[in-house]
Amino acid sequence: MSVDETNGFFTDVTLCIGCKACEVACKQWNELPADGYGLTGNSYDNTTHLGGNTWRHVAFVEQMDRTTPAESRWMMLSDVCKHCTNAGCMEACPTGSIVRNEFGNVFVQPEICNGCGYCVPSCPFGVVAIQPQSGIAEKCTLCYDRQKDGIEPACAKACPTDSITFGPVVELRKKAEARVATLLARGQHVEIYGTKEQMGAVGDLNAFFLLPDRPEVFNLPPNPVLPSTYQPGAYASLAAAIGVVALASYAIFRRRG
Amino acid sequence: MPGLGTLYGRGGATTFLMDLVNSDLIIIQGSNFAENHPVGFRFVTEAKKRGATVVHIDPRFTRTSALADHYLPIRSGTDIAFTGGLINYVLQHEAYFKEYVETFTNASYLVDPAFRDTEELAGLFSGFQPDSGTYDPASWTYERDDVGRPKKDPTLQHPRCVINVMKRHFARYTPEMIESVCGTPPDAYRRLCELVATNGGRERTMVYCYAMGWAQHTVGVQNIRAAATLTTLMGSTGRPGGGIMALRGHASIQGSTDIATLYDLLPGYIKAPSLERGESTFEQWKAKQTMPTGWWANWPKYAVSQMKAWFGDAATAENGWCFDYLPKITGDHSHQPMFFTMKDGGIEGMLLWGQNPAVGGQNAALQRAAMGQLKWLVCQDLFETESAAFWKREGVDPTTIGTEVFFMPAASVAEKAGTFTNTQRLVQFHEKAVDPPDDAHSDLAFAYGLTKRLKALYRDSTNPLDRPILDITLDYESDDPHERAREEPDVEKIMREINGYTIADGVQLKSFTDLKDDGSTAAGAWVYTGYFPAPGENLTRRRTGDDWVSLEWAWAWPANRRNLYNRASADADGKPWSERKKYVWWDDEAKKWTGYDVPDFIATKPPSFRAADGARGMDAHDGTAPFMLQEYGVAELFGVQGIVDGPLPTHYEPRESPVRNALYPDVQVNPVLKQWLRRDNPYHEVADERYPFVLTTYRVTEHHLSGAMTRWSPWLAELQPELFCEISPELAVERNIRNREWVTITTARGEIEARALVTGRMKPFKLGPKRFVHQIGVPMHFGYQGEVTGDAANVLVPLVADPNVSIHEAKAFTCDVRPGRRGAAHEGPTWLPVPLDERTPLGRPERSGAVAPPPHETVAIDREIVDAATIMSASRQVHDQGERRP
Prior knowledge:
- The complex is a heterodimer.
- By secondary structure, chain A is an alpha+beta fold.
- Chain A folds into 2 domains: 3-225, Alpha-Beta Plaits (2-Layer Sandwich), CATH 3.30.70.20; 226-257.
- Helix content of chain A is 29%, strand content 18%.
- Chain A is built from 8 helices and 10 strands.
- In chain A, the strands form 4 sheets. In chain A, strands 8-1-10-9 form a 4-stranded mixed β-sheet. A two-stranded antiparallel sheet of chain A has the order 2-3. In chain A, strands 4-5 form a two-stranded antiparallel sheet.
- The longest helix of chain A has 26 residues, at 231-256.
- Chain A starts with 6 loop residues before the first strand and ends with a helix.
- Chain B has a domain at 2-249: 3-Layer(aba) Sandwich (Dimethylsulfoxide Reductase, domain 2).
- In chain B, helix 1 runs parallel beside helix 11, helix 5 packs antiparallel against helix 8 (175-182) and helix 5 packs across helix 9 (186-197).
- Residues 832-886 of chain B have low confidence and may be disordered.
- The longest helix of chain B is centred in the middle third of the chain and has 15 residues, at 443-457.
- In chain B, the strands form 10 sheets. A 6-stranded mixed β-sheet of chain B has the order 22-24-23-29-21-27. In chain B, strands 3-2-1-6-7 form a 5-stranded parallel β-sheet.
- Classes of the chains: A alpha+beta, B alpha/beta.
- At the A-B interface, helix 1 and strand 3 of A face helix 3, helix 4, strand 3, helix 22 and strand 24 of B.
């Protein structure tokens, strides 16, 4: 699998109209049920977060400015699994169910997953979750079945304004950089979210975003971490603890002896 | 829409969505484009990518505002003041496109000396008839020379030439006035004025996009006229990236205007014969409808061909082509008066297709009660809608309702073949994907099957009154045994009839120019002639697109023209105004019009052609007259015909408003609006302190119309699961309302409950130093049936109408809002209204505004003690006394 052939998403927040067609197209194609009915009172977001049944989620950010109304913004971001270069879920999976498929996407094999849930806290973006009906870990497959038939994922197909685009990540990155340059030239402050420079150990995100504000505003972590990020420190602490216990035991037994 | 029809000649959008990418300035007003037309909005985002400026003007900061470069707030119902200010700016600064306006509009025509403007009559035009509350438009015309042609002043200097009449008319619409009327910040407004002024002329074009936010007002038609006036002044209509994009609210609503569902139109915009106009024979009808000059000189060809299509051999010249078979208009039979008549027991039965008046109808409680007066109701729909289940709604005892309800399951779009005519007049065919389940049928099959059964029932009748049923043509039997077994007719056979054919040999016609008035051709709707020009050549099936005009993609009426009036994209000599905006031009070598689109003009009429005195039909139009359906082929900035509430748009307040008309204090509302003063349809008077807030109803992306399809889908229901009411933080503090908690919204028509959605996207309007008006918004999608349910916003809305098209005013009326849930009896008047003899008759300026709103105590009668019978008998009495205005 060469990096050039990896497929992914580029989601441009400046083009999103918050229509949620991606959410519905995703649920329809992947036969996912609704999560239940309740008004949150949080802007127009009533599905609240990604989960076992919600693999695309549109976040709504209202920044209404009463002192300088012209600065007011209402931003929408269609969040999705990032299909990380170094995926936390994959690292944590004890059964080997989570793999990187032939399109370079992080894929949970439903027939192998035993629903242990180790992947859930290991995802730095809070993406993967246990699907309540099946009891196994589920998340965006990047429409693996559609890709195998040579068609784009359902969300990208449904997106009316091309805020979500699908394709080889190498090409998407070029497109994103051109878009950033255009918007910067027009005086808009935008940035790409998902380059390995920002993401550290997680590496490049294969589903990346163009953001008009800081990542935290959209509930995206500015410095995502992997389970292994703290591993060296954790092992060192463990070794130190063992050492202390050993020394203490030695001291105690020696006194008795 | 007469707003566009009276200015340009046709009511349809002048341009097409894909052409928005060529625009330099896109103004979206009276529309929540991104939310309600998300697929079309892709061309707005694409235009923005290419450098266009996008402006959104709306009472609420919506998802459209979120994507716009500039958002300007506007108090609901003040759009004419807003647009009038822009018109004033371009006129005063001479920023309009002079050559275009001089050549293609009636700007240089002299207005009749008898005409008096609102400036002279304190808010009324000449011809107002106080007794009938209507206008006599006799003085809204041109000064004519000896042979009857309008006098002109090409130098535009004469004080009575249209452009100077307009200058005086709009002079009042200053930025300061706009601020005090619309609540729009003056700085932002000035910037918009400059933006408009710099986006016209040879090199640049602007486009207006509008939808129901403009139409649903008592000045709806004039809202649209105002914008069309501005795009015409800027020289954008008929040119790439320019014009008016009318956004239709649901699939094929353009189609159902073309193949007319309106009570006063026959298919193809042929006006139904009206006894009010004295059209009781075919000859009288023909005399009234055939225009001496312009395209409507062809009227007899279209009308006769239509009757031949419907009645076949029975239609002969001797019997006036079966004119007697056609129903005649005897009054206003539009939706609102029809439901009043129904409520009063005047209608026996109703067939209800694709409509849900129990939720989508204004003063919904009245419409639900009206259905309870029917003997029978047939409702065909996908689900058991609120209208099909009105008899078992909350608070109603089914044993008190005598209506027999038949619910027929309908086929959904994927379960039937047919066409959609979309917002840009594009007719697209769609195949059937699967059979409908069980006994569900297409609407077409229902209508076809019903007619077949009626014909069989009347087969042996000798009563002449039954002839229309026996003579109507019905040759649509499917050749496919599977479809025939399901009683589904052949859609293409119907399309063939709509397209038209020769009677003698049945050859399908290629163009409406082939139609004849001697009975030798048949065509169901002349505007569609040419969409099925030969067997097997259904042009609406075509799917070859390019990245712009896409002439090979389906078919658009008329004659596959995509941008209407596109002759205006070339100058008087037929040369493109500029290379950048090149579109259709005169090819001097080939001696014909050519370009990227089908020319919307007589293809071989040279630009130098000049009409001879006394010429008829299209010969009366010069080679510089792009608006072929108009009397003189020019855009009528000053409307001389077809509009009943004034030749120029004028700001009047909505029927219910918290403020008085600042522009014309003597005339509060559209003086000729239609209203129904009845106890079951009470109105709030101006500045009624019991109803201090403005309410607008609207749609969101997640649901469609009354929710009859979407609230049944869990995937959509979870996205917007409950009725909410958008409230500004300022109002929330004032009324002690908390986000997500219940609020009750009250009008005199009823009350509903909703969850509060407190958001900074709503903002009070500042109309003066210490004068603020609060506005709230409620979606109209909820009802008592479906996966998710809620109160219907339309319970709150009054029945009151624009005088041109009888559309209601759901976008601007007044209300109260308070924390907490509503009581059980929420439908119907919440207080007994002011007795009619104490009311201020609207539209009678000598008395308008003279009566102050009555104090609380006299009207706050506990509605528990008012039984329905009292209200009912009172309303009947009122109705019988003829209180309804014509």
